[in-house]
Amino acid sequence: MIDAQQVLGSGQVLDVTWTPVDPLSTAYSLSLPLAAPTKAACVAGAPLVFGADASVAGKYNIVARAPGYTGQSTAPAVVLGEVSGTTSKDLVLVP
Fold this sequence. Notes:
By secondary structure, the chain is mainly beta. It contains no helices and seven strands. Helix content is 0%, strand content 28%. Strand 1 and strand 2 (13-19) form a beta hairpin.
């Protein structure tokens, strides 16, 4: 399983998307947004006010996991730079 995580400016880690890996070719593909995520503080009795977390726009940790294997990550984050661009990362899991 390949998981794309985004760490917000507050330190909170979000799972953005995930996908299985093709067991024969070991290929995977993720489509990730370049735009900054929006977030809002939750305060009892107050309305939610959303704002962009611009410092983490297009930055993702790609994490590979499989039962019986040691997980691997691209940390520090992969930084995406262009619309419809392709970034390649090979992650090798060790039993």
